[in-house]
Design brief:
By secondary structure, the chain is mainly beta. The protein is built from 1 helix and 11 strands, in the order αβββββββββββ. It binds copper (II) ion.
Length: 160
C-alpha cells in the first residue's frame, strides 16, 4: 500500500515522464505502455515489452500471447548460461499478488515469429495477452526505435 502511494505521488510529480504512456486494465491486472523496438525490414523476429501490475490478492499467470501480424508469439526469458546471454521459451509467467512483472529488453518478452512485415517506428499493432485468472485483453503495441522514457532506462539494442 505504501509502495503504491509512493508510485502514485511519483507519477503526479513527473507528468512529462508518463505523457506517452498508454495502459490497459483487465480484472485485477494493469498493463502499462506496451511497446516494441522497430527492427530492420529483413529482421525475422520482433519482441514486445510491457509492465504488468497485479492489484489483486491472488497471483495470476500470463499464459500466452497472439497477434494478427505474426504467425507465432512465444513467451521468452533471457538467461545467463556459460557466460552468454541466451533466451528461451517459458510456458507461463507468474504475476505475483500485489506485485509487478516487467517485460523488457534482456528480460521477459513476447517473441514474435513469422512476421507478415516489420512494423515501422510510430506504428502500432494489436497483441492479445491471455491470463489464467483475469482472462484475455487486447493491447496496442507502440513501435519505437528506442525504449520509451516511461521504462525508466534505455537498454542497448540486442539481436535475437
Ligand atoms: Cu526472445
Amino acid at each position: 500500500m505504501l509502495l503504491k502511494k509512493t508510485l502514485l505521488i511519483a507519477a503526479l510529480l513527473s507528468p512529462s515522464l508518463f505523457a506517452n504512456a498508454h495502459d490497459y486494465s483487465v480484472g485485477n491486472l494493469h498493463i502499462e505502455h506496451p511497446w516494441s523496438r522497430a527492427m530492420p525490414p529483413v529482421a525475422p523476429t520482433a519482441a514486445a515489452y510491457f509492465v504488468v501490475h497485479n492489484k489483486g490478492s491472488d497471483a495470476d499467470r500470463l499464459l500466452s500471447a497472439s497477434t494478427p501480424v505474426a504467425g507465432k508469439a512465444e513467451l521468452h526469458e533471457h538467461i545467463h548460461a556459460d557466460g552468454l546471454m541466451k533466451m528461451q521459451q517459458v510456458q507461463n509467467v507468474e504475476i505475483p499478488a500485489g506485485g509487478e512483472v516487467k517485460f523488457e529488453p534482456m528480460g521477459y518478452h513476447v517473441m514474435l515469429f513469422n512476421l507478415k512485415q516489420q512494423a515501422k517506428d510510430g506504428e502500432r499493432f494489436p497483441l492479445t495477452l491471455t491470463f489464467e485468472k483475469a482472462g484475455a485483453v487486447e493491447v496496442d503495441i507502440a513501435v519505437h526505435t528506442d525504449a520509451p522514457e516511461a521504462a525508466g532506462h534505455v537498454e542497448e539494442p540486442h539481436q535475437h
